[in-house]
Structures are given as structure tokens and as C-alpha cells.
């Protein structure tokens, strides 16, 4: 499920910390997914060895991530850098 790298579109990755007191249940997960859907990039949310398509509400919710967890956001595609910037800001704003 991880994004594939190519010479034109390398895989980019950032680490973000889910704010304390926030869980990725329906509303926060929907906010994250809506942000991811604005981009063409293939985006994956990773919690340790578990991963989910960041554009899938069920996948994101199934991770069951709790506040304080360090997540990795991985993306590839034309707008991967912009997607990761927007998603990092989105996660920080969930507080």
C-alpha cells in the first residue's frame, strides 16, 4: 500500500504528533481525509507497522490512533510536498 517512488516523484515522508486528547475517530479522521482528498498524491498514514490510505475514512479510523502518538505521513506524486505540508498543519490544528 506504500506509495511507489519514481525518479520524477520520490516518496516523501514527515513525522507528526497527534495532539494530546485527540483520537482519530469520526470527526478528526474526516478532517484529515478531506484534506488528503484535495491532492492527487498517493498518501499513506503510518502508525508503527500499521498503515492506512489517508484518503480512506475507514482505514484512518481503523488505526485507532490516540493523542500523543507519533505518526508518519508518506506521499508520492506531483503535489506530494504540498499534501504533506497541508496534512501536517491539519494534524496540528486538531488540538
How would you describe this protein?
The protein contains 3 helices and 4 strands. Strands 1-4-2-3 form a 4-stranded antiparallel β-sheet. The chain has a single domain, classed as Histidine-containing Protein, Chain: A, CATH 3.30.1340. The chain is 34% helix and 24% strand. The protein is of the alpha+beta class. Strand 2 and strand 3 form a beta hairpin. The radius of gyration is 12 Å and the shape is globular.
CATH architecture verdict? 2-Layer Sandwich
Question: Overall pLDDT, averaged?
Answer: 93
Based on Cα principal axes, name the global outline.
globular
List the helices and strands in order: EHEEHEH
Largest sheet: 4 strands, antiparallel
**SSE-based structural type:** alpha+beta
Question: How would you summarize what this structure contains?
Answer:
The chain has three helices and four strands. By secondary structure, the chain is an alpha+beta fold. The longest helix is centred in the C-terminal third of the chain and has 14 residues, at 80-93.
Task: Walk me through the topology.
Elements: E1 12-17, H1 26-37, E2 42-47, E3 50-53, H2 57-62, E4 70-76, H3 80-93
Antiparallel strand pairs: 1-4, 2-3, 2-4
Helix pairs in contact: 1-3
Amino acid at each position: 500500500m506504500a506509495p511507489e517512488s519514481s525518479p520524477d516523484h520520490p516518496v516523501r515522508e514527515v513525522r507528526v504528533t497527534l495532539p494530546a486528547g485527540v483520537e482519530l475517530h469520526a470527526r478528526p479522521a474526516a478532517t484529515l481525509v478531506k484534506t488528503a482528498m484535495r491532492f492527487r498524491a498517493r498518501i499513506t498514514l503510518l502508525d508503527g507497522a500499521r498503515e492506512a490510505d489517508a484518503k480512506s475514512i475507514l482505514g484512518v479510523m481503523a488505526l485507532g490512533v490516540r493523542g500523543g502518538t507519533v505518526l508518519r505521513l508518506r506521499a508520492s506524486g506531483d503535489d506530494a510536498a504540498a499534501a504533506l505540508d497541508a496534512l501536517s498543519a491539519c494534524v496540528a490544528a486538531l488540538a
